[in-house]
Predict the structure.
Amino acid sequence: MNTPVITDTMNKDFVLAVEGLTVSFDGFKAVNDLSFYVDENEIRVIIGPNGAGKTTVLDLICGRTKATTGSIKFKDQELTRMKEHEIVRAGVGRKFQNPSIYEDLTVFENLEISYPKGRSVVGALTFRRDAPVKERVQEIAEMIFLADQLDQRAEYLSHGQKQWLEIGMLLIQDPELLMLDEPVAGMSVSERKKTAELLHTIIKNRSVIVIEHDMKFVEDIAHKVTVLHQGKILSEGPMAKVQADPKVIEVYLGH
Amino acid sequence: MTKTGRTFFLRPQDMIGIAILAILLLVVLPLTLDNFRLQFVGKYLTYAFVALGLVLCWGYAGILSLGQGVFFGLGGYCMAMFLKLEASSVENTKIQTTPGIPDFMDWNQITQLPWFWEPFHHLGFTIIAVLVVPAIFAFVVGFAMFKRRVGGVYFAIITQALAAILTILIVGQQGYTGGINGITDLRTLNGWDIRTDSAKTILYFVCVGLLLASILLAYFVKSSKLGRILVAMRDKEDRVRFSGYDVSNFKVFVFCLAASLSAIGGAMFTLQVGFMSPSFVGIVPSIEMVIYTAVGGRLSILGAIYGTLLVNWAKTSFSESFPELWLFGLGGLFIAVVLTFPNGIAGLYQTYVAPRLGPLFGGAAKRSDATPPAPPSSGHAPAAAE
Ligand SMILES: Nc1ncnc2c1ncn2[C@@H]1O[C@H](COP(=O)(O)OP(=O)(O)O)[C@@H](O)[C@H]1O
Ligand SMILES: [Mg+2]
């Protein structure tokens, strides 16, 4: 809607260029002719009422859902034609809405599996837990406040710690584009603060797309906000502009 | 494996467990059982290869196959074809219309050895075929299914259908396969008579040796990162996929590995028992093998071996007195295991025995490393490959 008109040749400047993206579930268009662009090192927050299609947008970008039409370009690679693991290997990391971690494994093992080495069958069989791996796991564990829980089975972590662990599992892959689906949902106030702190450290040198409802949190981190409503962009721009947009107040912020 | 500098893949308690099993199978049972009973144990152990494969495939990776008899059978038939050809020398079969071909072919008016039997004149080829034919079959099935993301119950049903189809095929093509009777009257392996008591004892030890080697292989896979990826896939397949892994490749791999292990069991069955028939291929034996694994503990490599031995021992004793009740007993046992101790004998051991043994092993058993049995919460839904 308010997105600038951009031609294909200019896409190179963007880390992510979504154009005309539509997905239809049995005729219901959960995402409808959506276009938006994410810059290098930009933190983009997507907000919008429940069912607006926010999670579906992330599903489309990471290949979990196939687009009906439209294009998703990540640094000139067309993601709509790639398999999920290829998209990950290209540098796109995605955190799910509910913490998605391996409960039967330890925190260390959770992070180790996410370490971007030995991803083929043979590679996994011959993978060695050598010093660089251990150091990297330790480094990430410290960032996500779980250095003391490395040998603990992940199922015994608190909800907030599970969210951090999943964020850590993405960080260890060092993705160029990181997508987080409601990372602070269900967290206590103190956990929220720590998560905001964590996000501030991890967003360096990468682009981030965050879906979030907590407006204080959004204000705190967003460079630019995209408001989705019924699969379309209702408003886009800096937080102040979006917050002042009467359409946004009517469908979302007014509640 | 250890030369590469990785930490040794067996934990102290694993080594103790394997040593105890080895002593039991190599020393205690041969010394205490008569030949006849020892041959029974040897036969049971051939199913343990299948159970071992199921621990990796079903227990760790969450892929329930109800058709492992297919691979047991393919391995067994490959071996049987070699032995049958050796038993069907022109001299042995001179009374036939066409001497030099297996007797059942002659009875079915076949006058020339089918092309696919030809290579089974060679022992080397046969041994490779035992390992590779089932793996190729598993690869084709696994590739077709897992690339299409068929999993869980659907996969289980398809494997069951395969078991049924292969049985029908073998029974129907009796000129090429020996039909319902299977391939019988096997005599010698490269001239060595496998029917004598001494040969059977030697084959028992070969079987135990192969089983122990397979157990080591299973431990190696389990303790590698691949083993942990299997567990991770069982739990959160999408998370593994979105961590950059092509999940289907790992499923295909573990399914093929389980197939090859089953096939070794099948080949050893043929050698020790002296025949192979479709009754080891179909749905019922395939499900029985899943039950052995469940009873022993589908998450425990060693548990599955004990489960196989125990259920078969019970089957033999039970069916001697009440043959018609056995299937009910087996079904009841399965339900009891699933409902009351989902991690089988190994789970009971872990819960009640290991904590008391812990101090003996210098606390080694306390390490929560590698893959401890799944908690009860996930224990009830083994096939839930989401
Ligand atoms: N796989 C699917 N099949 C059918 N409908 C879906 C599917 N995924 C999402 N939807 C629908 O699309 C709409 C948007 O969902 P979602 O993206 O999860 O919203 P949000 O994350 O903004 O709350 C919802 O109405 C949801 O029911
Ligand atoms: Mg959502």
User: Anything to note?
Assistant: Residues 49 and 265 of chain B are 5 Å apart (CA to CA). Chain B has one domain: 2-385. The pocket of magnesium ion (ligand 2) is lined by residues A 54-55, 97 (CB under 6 Å). Residues 2-385 of chain B form one domain.
